[in-house]
Design goal:
With 535 residues, this protein is α/β, with parallel strands linked by helices. The chain contains 20 helices and 5 strands. It has helices spanning 23-32, 36-48, 55-80, 125-138, 155-158, 164-171, 181-192, 197-214, 217-226, 244-253, 269-281, 287-300, 303-326, 333-350, 354-375, 412-436, 440-447, 463-473, 482-499, 511-534, and strands at residues 83-91, 97-106, 110-119, 146-151, 176-179. It has a 5-stranded mixed sheet with strand order 3-2-1-4-5. A hairpin with a 5-residue loop joins strand 1 and strand 2. The longest helix is centred in the N-terminal third of the chain and has 26 residues, at 55-80. The protein is globular.
Amino acid sequence: MSYRGTQSEASQSLSNTNIDHGTFLELILLISKFDPILKSHLDHVTKNAPKNSSNDDECKKVGRGSFIMKRIIAEEVKESEMYSIQIDTTQDIKVEDQCSIIIQNVNDSVNERLIGVSNVISSTGKSMFELVSNILMENGIDIKYCIGSATDGASNMQGQYQGFSKFLSDASPGQIHVWCHAHLLNLVMIDATSKTMECTIFFGLLNSCAVFIKDSYKRMNLWKEIGTETNRRLVNANDTRWWSKDAAVRSIFGRFGSPGGNQNDEGLYGILVTTLKHISSSHSIKNDIKCNARSLMKHLLSYKTVITAQLYLRLFEHTTPLSKYLQTNGMDILKSQRMVNTTIKDLETICRDFKEVKKAADNFLVWANKKSDELETNEVIVNGFLSEDSVRKRKRKRMFDEILEDQPFDDPEEKFKINVHNHVIDTVIMTLKERFSKYESLFADFSILDPKNFKDTDQTISHKAFERLSHLIMRFDSNATANSLRLEFFDFKSKWPKLCQKVPSDYNIDYENDSDQSDNDMSDLQLNKQSCKKT
C-alpha cells in the first residue's frame, strides 16, 4: 500500500477533509473516528506540526537523509578499499525498468547495502555499465576497486564482447563475474523444456489446461464437484517461477513411476480428464468451449503426452533438489558445486535408459485407466505410439553425385527415444557443464577460507590455491604473496578453536573450594616472605 498521496501527505494538513491524503493516511483517518487513542495522537501531531512546512520541504528532508546515508556508505567502502556489486532489474507498476545496485564490502563486519535505484533507458551491456559507473561516481566510489559482480545470466550481462561483465572487466581488471546459480539452473531447464516441438507442445498443454479450468467459475465448480476428496489446483508452468514446471507436471501426473502415491502426491490426471469430459458433453456450455475441452482431452489421452511427462518427472527428480539447495540461505559454495557435479553424473547414468521411462509410462497407463473406471469417464489411453504409416514420408531432394541418404526412423518409439528423450537429457548435461564449470576451481579455492572446512584442510593443500588468491589480492596489497597467505591461513586455523569460543552467560563459583584455595595461596605467600627475610 502506497504511503504517499498526491500532494497533501504533510501532517499539518490532516485536519483538512477536502483534500486527498493518500490511501494509507485516509485509512488512518477513518480508523481514528472509532479509536479515541489514535484520534488523540493525530490531533496532537496536527497541532504541533510546523505551519510553514510544505510537500517540497518534506522531499528535501528525505533527500538530505538519503545523501547522508550514501555518504556514510561511500566512506565505509573507501575504508575497506575493495568491494563487489550486485545488480538486477525489475519492472515497476508504471512498466518502467528499474535497476537496483547493491554494494558489498567488509570492514569489521560484512555489509550489504542498497546504493541506488535508477530507471533503465537501454538494457544493452554498455548502457548498464555506464548506468552503474555513473551512480558509483556520484557517490565518490572508484570503480577500479570493484573485485566482483553478481548478475543474472542474461546475454546483456555475461556477453563475451558486448556484455556488462566485459565492460566492467575493462575498467577493473581481475574482477570476477558470478551468476546466481539458481538462475543458471533455471536457464538450463528453460533450454531443456523448449528444445523440441514435443516439449513445447507438452508444457503448452499443461498451461492451457490450468488456464482453461481457472478461467470460469462454472468450470472451477465442476472441478471441485468431481475432485471432492482434494483441494488441490493445477499449476501454471512459468519460466520465471523456478519451481513451477516441476509442480505443474507433478500436479497432473504424480511422481515418476508411482502416480498414485499418497493423497497429497497423487496425480490429478483422472480428475482433469473427467472434468474435460463433462465440459465437452454439456448442453449448457458454448460450442467453442466444448471444442477446446475436447481438444485438450484428446492431447492428454495421447501416449506421447504420458511418456513425455514421465521423462520430465524423472529429470526433475534430479534437478529440483539441486534448485532448492541453491536457493537456501548460507549456502556452501563448495558443496553446491559438488551437488552440480553429482547431478551431472546421475544424469549421465540415466541418459540412455529409455526403458525405465517407458516402463513408468506403462505403469501410469494402468493407473490412469483404472482411475477412469472409478470416475466412470470411459476414456482410455492407447498403450503405445500411434503408427505413422498413414503419414506421407517426406523425401529429401538428392544431388546427382550424392551417395549417402538420410535414414528416417520408421519406428515412432525409436524416433521419440532419439529425438526427444536423448536430446532433452543431453541438452541438460551439456548446458550444466557449460554454465557451472567456469569458476569451479575458484570456488574450491575460496571454500578453504570457510571455518566449516578447516577440519578438511591440512599442510598438503595445493599451493596453487594460494597462488590464485594471491593473484587477485596483489593489486591491493603487495605483501599478499602465496607464501604469506599460506602462513597466515594456517596460523588463523590453529587459533580458530579459541577465537570461536563464546563468552559464558553466567559463572558458577564454588566459594568453599575458592576459600580453601585462597588460604593455600596465603600460606604460600607467607612462606615466600619468610624465605626472603632469611636471605
